[in-house]
Amino acid sequence: GGDHTITYPILQAVAEKHSPVGLVHVDAHTDTGDRALGEKIYHGTPFRCCVEEGLLDCSRVVQIGIRGSSYDPDPYKYCRDQGFRVVPAEECWRKSLVPLMGEVRKQMGDKPVYISFDIDGLDPAYAPGTGTPEIAGLTPAQALEIIRGCKGLNIVGCDLVEVAPMYDVSGNTALLGANLLFEMLCVVPRVKTM
Q1: Distance CA 2, CA 185 (A)
Q2: Strand, coil or helix: what is 129?
Q3: pLDDT of 71-96, one tens digit each?
Q4: ∠ CA 32-133-43 to the nearest 5 degrees?
Q5: pLDDT by residue (tens digit) across 20-40?
Q6: Which string of DSSP letters, residue by residue, matches 140-189?
Q7: How far is the first Cα of the chain from the last one, in angstroms, to the nearest whole number?
Q8: How many CB atoms lie within 10 A of CB 172?
Q9: What gap in Å lies between CA 191 and CA 194, rounded to an integer?
Q10: Is 179 exposed, middle or buried (0-12, 13-18, 19+ CB in 10 A)?
Q11: 73: burial class by Cβ within 10 Å (0-12, 13-18, 19+)?
C-alpha cells in the first residue's frame, strides 16, 4: 500500500548504510518526472529525486514492465540518459522473464539492491485496485519470475506500493499484493524458506 512517494524516504534511509544501491523497479511508469502541479515530490518523481541525491547506482537500475501513455515523444530518455536499463512491457509479452532475470542478476552483482514493486506493473485484468492502471501489463506469473529471479542478490530492502483495495471489489489486487510481498520477503538474504 501507499503511493510510490514512500520509496524516496526509504531509499534515503537505506542510503545512509548502503549508498548507492542498485534497483529492481517493476512498474507501468518510470516515476522519474520532474514536477506535477508545481510539486517536486509526488508519486511520479521518487526515482528522479533519488538520482539527484546520489542514492542509486544508476548502472545497476533496471525498470521492468514500463508502458502507458505519455506527453513526451521519448518518455524513457531521462532514464536511459542516467544509465538505467528500461524493459518496456512489450518486450515481456508472451514470454518467460527467467532469462531477463539472469541478466539482471549479473548486472546487480553482489552489491546492495533494493526492490520496488508498483502493483500497476501488472495488467489491470489481474490487479485493478490501483490509482493509475495501464493496459497490457505483466502477468502474475511474470511477477513471480521477477521476484524469484532476485534470489541470491544482496537485497537490502523492498516495497510493494500503489495497492488501492477500494478500486477492486473482488479483493484480488490485495490478495496478489500480499502474495507478492511474501515472495519478496522470501528472497531477502538469510531468510529461511522450506
Answers
A1: 18
A2: coil
A3: 788 889 999 999 999 999 999 999 99
A4: 30
A5: 999 999 999 999 999 888 899
A6: HHHHHHHHHTTTTSEEEEEEEE---GGG-TT-HHHHHHHHHHHHHHHHST
A7: 27
A8: 16
A9: 10
A10: middle
A11: exposed
Return the bridge partners of 61, or none. Answer: 23
- 167-193 pLDDT tens trace: 999 999 999 999 999 999 999 998 776
Please identify which residue in the block is written with the cell numbers 500497476. 120
Per-residue model confidence as pLDDT tens digits over 93-119: 999 999 999 999 999 999 999 999 999
User: Which residues are 64's β-sheet partners?
Assistant: 26, 87
Return the sign of the alpha-carbon dihedral for residues 121, 16, 22, 96: negative
- Name the one residue in this structure whose C-alpha cell is 529461511: 192
Give Rg (Cα) of the chain: 15
8 Å CB contact between 149 and 101: yes
- List the beta strands (DSSP E) in the chain: 21-26, 56-66, 85-88, 112-118, 154-161
